[in-house]
Each structure stands twice: as structure tokens, then as C-alpha cells.
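Class, carefully examine what follows:
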Amino acid sequence: MFRRYISVDEETGAELFYYFVESERRPDTDPVILWMTGGPFCSDMIFFEVGPMKFVLAPYNGSLPQLAYNPYTWSKTANIILLDSPVGTGFSYARDMEGYRDIGDFSFSLHVLIFLNKWFIDHPRYQTNPFFIGGSSYAGKMSPIIADYISEEIEQGKQPRINLKGYLVGNPVTGSDYDDNFRVPYAHGVGIISDQLYEAAMRNCKGSYIRPTDKMCAMVLDTIANLMSEINQGHILSVRCGQGMLPHRFLSEEYSQLSETSPEQPTLKCSEYFDYLCHIWADDDSTRDALGVKQGTSGEFIRCRKSIPYTPSEVPSSIKHHFSLISRGYHALVFSGDHDIIIPFLSTQAWIRSFNFSIVDDWRAWHIDGQAVGFTITYANHITFVTVKGGGHISIENRPKECLAMAERWLNNEPL
């Protein structure tokens, strides 16, 4: 594993920080996956989602948090690039403050494209490896957008020629109304709201639960929002540790718990405890020296920054990019933890069905050790939709064994 910076904007001095983890299997031929985390402005580090390390879950004793090997790292089956993007995420930075202005989907995409072109020039041995781009949540919106731009560069004959084969996204944001509109039906389906309340929502909101047009619809959605605020939206069975609820427009990102100041120590049972350990570990001078973090480029480490303005409306919806890629033969794996209410699987299933692709492998269970761990369906043009039983918004973290098996089979062109 190594970690470095790559310059993506000479004018502002913007550089993106990344980790590269070589495949434990066959690095010369195994796929290369660029993996990004949601937010935006949430750092990948190496402890979250597909990374090779994890923190030892133990009460903090004042020393540097201990690390352990992640037995379900995706480096078991692929080479992984873990990228801090956009600028301002993790240890990625700009020397000129102008580099932090006007950050949005467009600059995010452009910088990642520049990063990848430079990375493959610097690492020619991987240029022929199958390449995939992926991420969870908001990175699930950006992945097909960036992949679509890469495909255009391929068609234009741009060098280096990235061997793009497809993309994979988990509980992906699209930016479209699909994201929000299925939260109410999902909440009813899992028993968060009653039959009567759901019927009132359908009657007064007429199937549109995002922008209420009359007082009765708004009142019903207020009641639903209050009920949903009682649970952890990212995983409805997990402990709720301070997550709030936005009125009418339900919480749209998983990383709402960290403030811009040093986080207070949560309890061990909270998922935020790992973010707390990450903050301590990444703020330590010895850690930064070992990582090669450039002095003066990063202040206090905040895993998920909220103070930098971001403009998502530059690309209102990623759905057209999904359709563009899939229609041209690129492979897509779209997976959903079925206990997520931020981007419920109903939302994702709906926009995939809107493409009207024919079914080539109908809805069925997929298994590990003889047990059903979710359900899957495959459509024409190589798009596979998968649910992960018991998974949340970031199912790779709370169902790591299942997600590694899913990725490994899909990357190997094996049926789930």
C-alpha cells in the first residue's frame, strides 16, 4: 500500500490525496477499482467500506487507536484506489483559497478525470487491467457521471486509454425525485408509519411526497417526518445516535453526525465511534508523518466536512448517465442494503425499472453458505440489481462478508 498526492489544478494548487492498495491475489491482472465515499466531502481513509484496515473496537484509553486487518477488504479480489475527493475532503487540499470556491459536481468530475489520467500514466503496468469506478451514497451519484466522461474520452481516442469495463454503486444518490419519493412507502412497509397515515399520505399528496402543494399533505408529511426521526435512517435497526430529521425532505446523506469541531466521544454501540477513532488517529503527528501528509496543507482532520459549499445542481440527476453507460454495453452492479431509509431499495429499483430493459435473470435469492443473504435481478445490457439482507445505507460496513462475496462474483463474471 502507498499513499500520495496528484495535482489536479495548477492554478489553485489543488491536489488530491489517495491510497493505493494492491490486490492480494493477482495484481497484474485483477481489476483496478477507484472507490469513493459519499458526503460529499467524506474521506475514504483506509478503515471504511472497502479498505484493508479497521479500528479495533475498544474503549478509548488516550493512546493512538489500534488498527487491525480487515478480513473483508476488497483488495482480496481487486487493486483499490481510495480517493479523497472533491478538494477539501480528508487530506486533499488547494494552496489557493479559490480552489475551495465553486466546488460542485462539475469540478468533482473534472478533477477525478485528471487524477485518473495522471495516475494511469504514472502506473502503466495497470493500464490493461479491467477498470471499474464505484462508491456509496453521493459517490454513487458521481460514479456513473465520471464513468460516462471516461467513456467519451475513450471514444475520442484520448491517451492513456483507460480500460473501463463498468461501475458499481451502493444505495446510490441520483439527485432525482426517485431518491426521496419512496421513503414514505418504505416507511409504511417496515412498520414505521401506520396504514391510516400512509392512506392519508396517498390521498392528500397523490403519490408525491417531496414538495407538498397543499396544507393537508404538508401536515401528513410533518407527522411522518416526526415518526421517522425516532429511528436511525441509515440503518433502521441500529441505535440512533443523534441523527436528526429534516422536515418534508428526509435526510439525504449518511454523514450528518459529525460537526466541524472535534467530535465528542460517542458510545461503543454507535457507528459514529469509528469516526471518533479516525479523528484521533488522523490528527496525530506520527500518523501524518507516516502518511506523508504535506505540512501546512491540512488543519484539524474532519472526516466529513460540512462547512465547504458544494453545488450538486450542476448535474441534477445521474440517471441519464446510468442509461448512457448501460446502453453502450458497460457493466453495472447496483446494490442496496434493505434496511436503509435514506436511499431505500424501492427508490433504486424504480429508476432501474424505468429503463424498460428486458429481464435476463429474474428475481431470486442469492446465497452464502447455503443461506439467502439478499435478492437479485439481472437485466439486459449487463445491469444487475442486488439487495443485501440486513444492510444499511453503507452495507459494505455492516454486511462486509456479503458485500465482498457479491463484488468478487460480479467482478469474476460469475452469477451471484
User: Anything to note?
Assistant: Residues 105-122 form the longest helix (18 residues). Confidence is low (pLDDT under 50) at residues 243-259. Residues 271 and 387 are 21 Å apart (CA to CA). The chain is about 30% helix and 20% strand.
